[in-house]
């Protein structure tokens, strides 16, 4: 989205505080469920990123007959309230926050553009545009933005496939659609390379979608356990991963284990490339792993008494979202986005263009 001249509030320093409780009205309201709308977009469009699903849900909110705002202040208040409800409803709010923040900033820019004159709003000239027409314009441009943002992955694939050359071996993990697109593009180009895929599922190692598709295209893939990452580093040329969110300091939030891959790669002088769309950039500045604001149980300490109370059952309830960790910017070589190949320090500059 284009930058705006209006100054936004000072970015939050972190997400260390617990998510707020959902407003009572949100749980009992049957007219619009923001979380259900968000998850329905993800189910209906498997290739849709979480930030874009969040934006799509907020666009649907503005279109809902029970919540259609009639003024600028009502619009901003409605978006702020439901953005908070949505981010509070998920265990990992990083990607959702990227989407809700970006959409909210965009709407502010559109509604307060000099060309917008709205009937009935104080301080505007007589004969201004009906607010319903303005709101319709916001919704239409929002849909257009989402559709254009979906193309970012293909732009990234065209850029990043230059990193994949004949004879290289790539270390990757997770379910990044950007990484998958890059590797498929390189394979279609006829390049001969190898992939080492880190799979954290129990033995025997499962053939994940990316692994299966690459093998179909004639690419040799080795599937290893996370405990074999250090062992494999001597055989690789670089690490390539995706991200759920790219933070203000240039670090990333990605699947659990990305941090240790980055540390090991750094220790052996192997580059680490992160592929992510710019709509995943988010104003979060964590101080450490525990400062992400993500509700997950990675370290679940239990003594004998706790185990006896649970009947000795070591099987935990399945988390609705995969665990993540934070990789600091000093471990990342480059970020490949649709707006170019960036150093981690350039992320804050891009966020400044949007917010200030």
Q: How would you describe this protein?
A:
With 356 residues, this protein is an alpha/beta fold. 40% of the residues lie in helices and 12% in strands. It contains 13 helices and eleven strands. The strands form two sheets. A seven-stranded mixed sheet has the order 3-2-1-4-7-10-11. A four-stranded mixed sheet has the order 8-5-6-9, sandwiched between helices. The longest helix is centred in the middle third of the chain and has 20 residues, at 131-150. The protein is globular, with a radius of gyration of 22 Å. 35% of the residues are buried. The model is unreliable at 1-30, 120-128 and 314-320 (pLDDT under 50).
- Uncertain runs: 1-30, 120-128, 314-320
Count of separate DSSP helical elements: 13
Helix content: 40-55%
Strand order of the largest sheet: 3-2-1-4-7-10-11
Order of helices and strands: HHHHHHHEHEHEHEEEHEEHEEEH
Entry keywords:
356 residues, alpha/beta, 7-stranded mixed β-sheet, 4-stranded mixed β-sheet, 13 helices, disordered N terminus
Please give a quick description of this structure.
The chain has 356 residues and is an alpha/beta fold. It has helices at 24-28, 34-44, 50-63, 72-88, 94-111, 131-150, 152-160, 177-188, 209-216, 229-232, 258-267, 304-309, 346-355, and strands spanning 169-173, 194-198, 220-224, 238-242, 245-247, 252-255, 272-275, 281-282, 324-327, 334-337, 340-342.
Topology:
Elements: H1 24-28, H2 34-44, H3 50-63, H4 72-88, H5 94-111, H6 131-150, H7 152-160, E1 169-173, H8 177-188, E2 194-198, H9 209-216, E3 220-224, H10 229-232, E4 238-242, E5 245-247, E6 252-255, H11 258-267, E7 272-275, E8 281-282, H12 304-309, E9 324-327, E10 334-337, E11 340-342, H13 346-355
Parallel strand pairs: 1-2, 1-4, 2-3, 4-7, 5-8, 7-10
Antiparallel strand pairs: 5-6, 6-9, 10-11
Helix pairs in contact: 2-3, 3-4, 3-5, 3-6, 4-5, 7-8
């Amino acid at each position: 989205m284009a930058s705006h001249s209006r100054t936004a509030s000072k970015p939050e320093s972190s997400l260390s505080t617990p998510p707020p409780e959902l407003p009572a009205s949100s749980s009992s309201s049957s007219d619009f469920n923001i979380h259900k709308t968000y998850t329905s977009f993800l189910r209906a469009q498997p290739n849709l990123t979480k930030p874009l699903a969040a934006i799509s849900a907020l666009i649907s909110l503005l279109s809902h007959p029970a919540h259609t705002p009639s003024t600028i202040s009502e619009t901003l208040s409605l978006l702020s309230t439901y953005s908070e409800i949505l981010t509070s409803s998920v265990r990992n709010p990083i990607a959702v926050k990227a989407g809700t923040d970006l959409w909210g900033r965009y709407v502010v820019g559109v509604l307060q553009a000099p060309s917008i004159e709205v009937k009935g709003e104080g301080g505007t000239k007589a004969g201004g545009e009906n607010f319903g027409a303005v709101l319709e314009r916001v919704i239409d441009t929002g849909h257009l933005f989402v559709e254009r943002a979906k193309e970012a992955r293909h732009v990234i694939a065209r850029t990043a496939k230059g990193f994949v050359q004949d004879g290289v071996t790539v270390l990757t993990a997770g379910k990044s659609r950007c990484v998958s697109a890059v590797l498929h593009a390189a394979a279609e180009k006829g390049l001969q390379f190898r992939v080492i895929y880190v799979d954290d599922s129990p033995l025997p190692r499962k053939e994940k979608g990316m692994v299966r598709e690459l093998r179909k295209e004639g690419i040799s893939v080795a599937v290893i356990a996370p405990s074999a990452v250090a062992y494999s580093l001597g055989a690789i040329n670089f690490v390539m991963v995706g991200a759920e969110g790219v933070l203000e300091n240039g670090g990333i939030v990605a699947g659990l284990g990305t941090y240790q891959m980055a540390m090991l790669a750094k220790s052996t002088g192997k580059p680490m490339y992160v592929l992510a769309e710019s709509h995943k950039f988010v104003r979060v500045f964590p101080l450490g792993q525990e400062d992400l604001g993500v509700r997950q149980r990675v370290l679940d300490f239990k003594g004998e008494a706790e185990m006896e109370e649970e009947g000795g059952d070591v099987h935990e309830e399945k988390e609705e979202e995969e665990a993540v960790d934070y990789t600091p910017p000093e471990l990342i070589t480059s970020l490949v986005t649709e707006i170019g190949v960036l150093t981690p320090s350039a992320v804050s500059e891009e966020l400044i263009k949007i917010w200030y």
